[in-house]
Amino acid sequence: MVEMIQRDDRNEVTIITVPARLDAVLSESLNQLFGDLMAEGRCKVVVDCRHLEFLNSIVIGILVSFHQKATKKGGNLKFANVPLPVEDVFRLTKLDQVFKWYPSVDDAVADF
User: Fold this and answer.
1) Given pLDDT bands bounded at 50, 70 and 90, which one contains residue 1?
2) DSSP class of residue 97?
3) pTM for the whole structure
4) Considering only CA atoms, which of 64, 60, 45, 55 is closest in space to residue 86?
5) Which of 4, 57, 102, 108 has the most CB within a 10 Å radius?
6) Domains, the chain
């Protein structure tokens, strides 16, 4: 089980693997990571959600903000291995109209 946010760069795409809980404790780390990615010009990102069980509204705001910045620079924020409870959060918040998710990281990377 992943306990911290992990980063893996694959050519021009960055894969971020997140732990079971994305809450206030890790929100600053996630925000800093997205800031670093933008500073490096890396705006094609896949979030691997295979371990994710919970995310709070602060994290949702960080994801939306990065998505907006990335798309302005020709990139995108995509999700892979999204569990049903997280899909439900995306649907309830209407983010299913903003974000795309894929059955695997490879599928999400291939769509770039």
Assistant:
1) low
2) G
3) 0.94
4) 55
5) 108
6) 6-35+42-110 (3.30.750.24)
